[in-house]
Amino acid sequence: MLSKKTRKFISLTLSLAIVIFMFVGCSSQTQKQTDNNQGKVNAGKLSGKIEVDGSSTVFPITEAMAEEFQKMHKDVKITIGVSGTGGGFKRFTKGETDISDASRPIKDKEAKIAQENGIKYKQIKIAYDGISVLVNPQNDWVDNLTVEELKKIWEPNSKVKTWKDIRPEWPDKEIKLYGPGTDSGTFDYFTEEIIGESGKIRTDFTASEDDNVLVQGIAGDKYALGYFGYAYYVENKDVLKIVPINGVKPTTETIEKGEYTPLSRPLFIYVSQDSFNNKEQVREFVKFYLKNARDIVPETGYVPLKQEVYDKQLEELLSGK
To answer: CA-CA distance, 165 to 177, in Å (whole number)?
Structure first.
């Protein structure tokens, strides 16, 4: 039989043990929560600037990517210019930007400037586009144009001044032409495929590297005609009418299957190797870009690549190939 004094001692000892156990448990739990919270804070600590410039055609894709990326990384500031593919490469090859949006591959003379300035880069294919020919919705006479007719309209020293000059049954009204400026990759691609030589075109048209300016011009003139990237048509279907070329209308399906020729083309971003290797915010943004392109690209009106193509490009980037 334990004495009263002994039982009291045991009781106090057990009580003290319970208190110590509870304190240790709570401390352990608190430390675990702190560790978890610290991990989340660290994950959101990404900061810094990312400088992007280039193609107005690619702009909607990069803008959408940036918006989604910045939801997770609010301290990262992404600036996106639209000086055109050529204008973007002028800055990129001097080391002024981290990423260059491009609606055509880099030219030899641009690559040479980059080499002279010690700028190494990686070309990344991100989507497919179909350069679209547009008229005003009030235009009720055009339901198709051939490549030959497009060339006749846009070639240097063109004799086409009115719609009647294309087909005799069309109105004897002056055509108001709108197209990308000379710094645009869309301009380069269109002239090469339609005229037969990059950069060759008539000069009496309203030119802009900003596709929104072209949209407004065509939407405001019944007798207008112009061309630009497919996504800008998708965004402005209510004020534009798209024209089939050689009987084929650009759609997600015809662009993806290669049926919309010759105006289907790939779109790119060019990533500075130095920025990718030494700026964590750039590296994480490009990784995000390739991991989410399959979902985000269609939202911007363009056609995505196969996921394995994005995966392979990311793998090559990370491995330094």
So the answer is: 14
pLDDT given at position 319? 87
Contact at 8 Å (CB) between 185 and 57? Answer: yes
Q: Which pLDDT belongs to residue 320?
A: 80
Does residue 97 share a domain with residue 78? yes
C-alpha dist (Å) from residue 83 to 67, 102, 209, 210, 225? 20, 11, 6, 8, 23
Q: Which among 111, 130, 107 is positioned nearest to 120, based on CA atoms?
A: 111
Q: How far apart are CA 131 and CA 100, in angstroms?
A: 20
The pTM is what? 0.81
Residues 162 and 229 in one domain: yes
Whether 86 and 109 map to the same domain: the answer is yes
Q: Is residue 252 part of a domain?
A: yes
Residues 203 and 281 in one domain: no
Asked if the structure places residue 294 within a domain, the reply is yes
Strand (E) or helix (H) holding 45: none
CB 119 within 8 A of CB 277: no
Q: Strands, E, within the chain: which ranges?
A: 47-54, 75-80, 99-102, 121-130, 132-135, 176-179, 206-207, 224-228, 241-243, 264-272
Say which CATH number the domain at 140 has: 3.40.190.10
